[in-house]
Specification:
With 156 residues, the protein is an alpha+beta fold. It has helices at 2-28, 55-58, 91-95, 113-128, and strands spanning 43-50, 53-54, 67-70, 75-79, 84-88, 105-106, 131-135, 138-142, 147-153. Strands 1, 2, 3, 4, 5, 6, 7, 8 and 9 form a 9-stranded antiparallel β-sheet that branches.
Amino acid sequence: MGYMSGLWTRVGATVLAIAVTAWLAACASSPSMTPGSGSSIFGTWRLTQIEGVDVKAVQDEGGRAPTLTVSVDGMIFGFTGINQLNSSVDLEALARGEFEMGLAATTRMAGSPAAMAMESRFVSGLADATRYTVSNGELTLSNSSRDLLRFVRVEE
């Protein structure tokens, strides 16, 4: 019995070592999934462009730019320029460089016509995005034909 018990302990340790090695290799091959790294999507972002148009050109004077926070558990929180937004994102899709956001819930405050239009374009951009890139402190959400939303990282 002692021999078999020791054998199973060694087999279990080997299997665990292989699993940990595979997990570390997967993490290394996907730097955008490493929380806290400069290339990570996780964190808080401030919107700078909607379909190539500077947010300052379309927001109310003195208005706050929309923000997006992507947490490591796949939850998304944001500010649309008027309302708060909550949703989720598929973590497996993120690991492939894809962006698949779930249905979004927002508060229902009203704003000026310009702020409401910007909010609509922002939420539509989030819903239409299918991929993302992070480079030089910028997050870009896009679909197969164009860049939809561009953000800069907010230092926390």
